[in-house]
Amino acid sequence: MAYETYTLGNVMVDCADEKELQNFYAELLGWEKRRLFARPAVKGPNGIVFLFCEESDYEPPVWPEQSGKQQKQMHFDFQVASIAEAVKRAEDLGAKKAAEQFGGDEFVTMLDPAGHPFCLCRKDTY
What we know:
Elements: E1 10-15, H1 18-29, E2 32-36, E3 39-43, E4 49-54, E5 76-80, H2 83-92, E6 96-97, E7 107-111, E8 117-122
Parallel strand pairs: 1-4, 5-8
Antiparallel strand pairs: 2-3, 3-4, 6-7, 7-8
């Protein structure tokens, strides 16, 4: 049986404030701000699109995970040339460094303004 080839279209990110998260990721990644499917979005030079969906009952995930608390469903790993510079830039834009870190010299876990964890990973690790 032949299967259709699948291509990642977009990534939808739930949050409490879709414009705030659009602005954060546009600045952090240097991606173009867009609207797609009536949602704020950012588009990267490689065609990847993050869409942001405001949910009135949004609960930010707890990281690291704790039983009985909102779990993360996914997180982004961004490859960067300098972790220290990328951390400073993310913090300047409103992210917070996660209290617990597990990456050593290879990555730092951050929390975006909506509380989603994302990692800034040393580029030469990949």
